[in-house]
Amino acid sequence: MNGSHDLGGMQNMGPIRYEKNEPVFHARWEGRIYAMNRALGLWRKWNGYSSRYQSEQFSPADYFRMSYYERWYTRIVQLLVNNKMVTPAEIERGKPAKGSTKATPPLTADQVVPMFTKGVFAGRDLAGAAPRFRAGQPVRVRNMHPTGHTRLPRYARGKPGTLERDYGVFPFPDAIAHFLPDKPQHVYSVRFAARELWGEQAKPQDAVYIDLWDDYLEPA
Amino acid sequence: MDTTRRGFLKTAVTAAGAAAAHDHAHAQDHDHEHQAVPSDLTLRVKSLESLLVQKGLVDRAALDALVDTYEHKLGPRNGARVVARAWVDPAYKQRLLADTDAAIAELGFGGQQGERMVAIENTPQVHNLVVCTLCSCYPWSVLGLPPVWYKSAAYRSRAVIDPRGVLREFGTEVPEDAEVRVWDSTADLRYLVLPERPAGAENLSEEALAALITRDAMIGVAKVKSPREGGRS
After folding, report:
1. Residue B41: which of A219, A15, A77 has the closest Cα?
2. Which residues of chain B does A113 touch, with a Cβ-Cβ cutoff of 8 Å?
3. Do B147 and A90 touch (CB under 8 A)?
């Protein structure tokens, strides 16, 4: 979707506001909503890409008005209701409906440190489509504008680049964000000359590297 | 249309098929600290947590452990130890560049199973800068959660089109003839910049080196300052 989240190359977004000695969370509720999001993810009712897509559907006005963690709050309420894990009435009252059953949380305190600080990348053995491209090859990004979720930023569409590195096989966000059958495929690091993206204002030697799925590319 | 914050949230929740909460008198949760004038969001998040705990959808102690983990266990000190080790141990540096996850795990750090770490090395000729233009992807296992500016529209929009301007805003000068490489984290790769070891730090211990290395240097918006320049300041 060509939404407000796809920000690369936009201008007039204001100065970068730097905060010295910034705390991890600026208020207690930020930490709590962050933790709830992570813990609820383990119910496996959604995945990282489908929950990103949930945020991408905020209207542009809402997207820019909300703070980062306001978006997380709003998104998790939507995900909980859409997945029938809570009802709107329960959200309103802050209490379970009469007679509702009590579940067993999938995440307990003792699992947190091993799961969130010791996990090791587990995607190496994922089987997928054979790579259509190889390192060193010139490629072009397809000109496509899907209305659903994609991880292909607008500023790269139609642009020529050079495939620098094959990172192996990963799940395909454009499918799994919509709970369609996965289409695992190779992800590559593709180098784009800054001038191909932005014209003469860029330095000739500068470059942008973008991680792109096989389906996003065509031979140059 | 109601333009107040509560009005907006009402709209958002209604969009999901829910009604807004106007009455927080039922909030169950009185055992945590109270603010004199709690914000609407404070109350709403508290109410949501109470509901989810009562329904058995989350375990409150697990939430406490998650907050503690991100506040105290994950953070740029982990990344600084990785970089310092790479500076003093050339064999480790080679492993870090070749198989970043395994090299980070050697020091006891890890993260998400679905994400693969990649270390990218700064040199006098190449300066690397990391951004996520589409959301807020960030190497949590070595840097913790990202600062607000990293997640801001200002940084996400400009880093790719005007990286040298962004670097100047951070007080970082890259020579005119050096190459700036911007890494847009659009997939499940997470990038850690391996900054250059500053002059004047030749004789420092690994621990003293780690104390010089900042989060900003590992994102690529800054360089590591020499001890003479005041290190981390």
Report:
1. A77
2. 65, 69, 73
3. no
Q: What is the pTM of this model?
A: 0.90
Domain ranges of chain A: 28-117, 138-219
Superfamily for domain range A28-117: Nitrile hydratase, beta subunit (1.10.472.20)
The C-alpha atoms of residue B145 and residue B140 are separated, in whole angstroms, by 6
- Where do the structural domains in chain B lie, given as residue ranges? 35-73, 74-229
Distance between CA B70 and CA A180 in Å, rounded? Answer: 33
Write the ipTM.
Answer: 0.97
Q: Is B23 a residue whose pLDDT tops 50?
A: no
Kindly list the distances between the CA atom of residue B46 and the CA atoms of A35, A89, A91, A107, in Å, as whole numbers in the listed order.
12, 16, 11, 19
Would the CB atoms of B181 and A206 count as touching at under 8 Å? yes
Question: What φ, ψ does residue A140 adopt, rounded to 5°?
Answer: -130, 140
How far apart CA B190 and CA A34 sit, in angstroms, is 20
Q: Which residues pair with A185 in a beta bridge?
A: A170
What one-letter code names the amino acid at B192?
L
Q: Can you identify the CATH homologous superfamily of domain B74-229? A: Nitrile hydratase alpha /Thiocyanate hydrolase gamma (3.90.330.10)
User: With an 8 Å Cβ cutoff, are B19 and A89 in contact?
Assistant: yes
Task: Please give the Cα distance from A42 to A46 (Å, whole number).
Answer: 9
Chain A residue numbers touching B109 (CB-CB < 8 A): 117
- Residue A152 tokens read as 């292909």
Query: Which helix (H) or strand (E) is B130 found in, with range?
Result: strand B126-131
Instruction: Report the C-alpha gap between B204 and B196 in whole angstroms.
Output: 15
Q: Which fold has domain A138-219?
A: SH3 type barrels. (2.30.30)
Residues B179-210 have pLDDT tens digits of 999 999 999 999 999 999 999 998 999 999 99
Q: Pick from B28, B41, B42: which is nearest to A94 by CB?
A: B28
Residues of A in contact with B183 (CB under 8 A): 208-209
B127 - beta bridge partners? B180
